TrEMBL record:
This is TIGR03085 family metal-binding protein.
Amino acid sequence: MTHARAERAALCDLLDRIGPDAPTLCTGWTTYDLAAHLVLRERRPDAAAGIALRPLAGYTASVQNGLKAKHPFPELVGMVRTPGGIYGLLPFADEAVNTLEFLVHHEDVRRAQPGWEPRELPADFDQLIWKRLSVGARLMLRRSPVGVVLHRLGGGVAIGGAQEGPKVEVTGKAGELLLFCFGRQQHARVDLTGDEDAVARLLNATLGV
């Protein structure tokens, strides 16, 4: 099983267990909203553009709400569990596009619940995360108001953020650095070193793709 499929299955198992009304780290979204988002992303290409393009966000939101109205929560989770659209036809596309997406959303649910602790990810998964993060760090950190130096525990450095001014050193495992760069700064287990004001600005910045 690929890491994308494993994260997808683990997320769906968790959704089935905690139900439709549990919180997530996605602002304003319950688990029902997140399940509808994931179905829309794979099975409604006409509405998926609004995920990234603000002018189309209204239509995307209406389709997402329509999915909730049409499908009971267990049915939506079942649709998430089986890759849809191109990802169902081309497993390599699922692995290429969805590995990090489902890891982050899995943690969006896990870390919104009380008593969570970081998972110990397999070494090859940690390496894959870092490989992709080190390539995408500049894009994910492009809105950072300060410079950022990522230090992966176990080896590896990547940079991003503002080219001028103070820099903040962010140290952690690859998965934690990924969550930080995806905009989950408050819920990533990392160590931050730098000017106090710069650290505060980075923690409250809008990061991610």
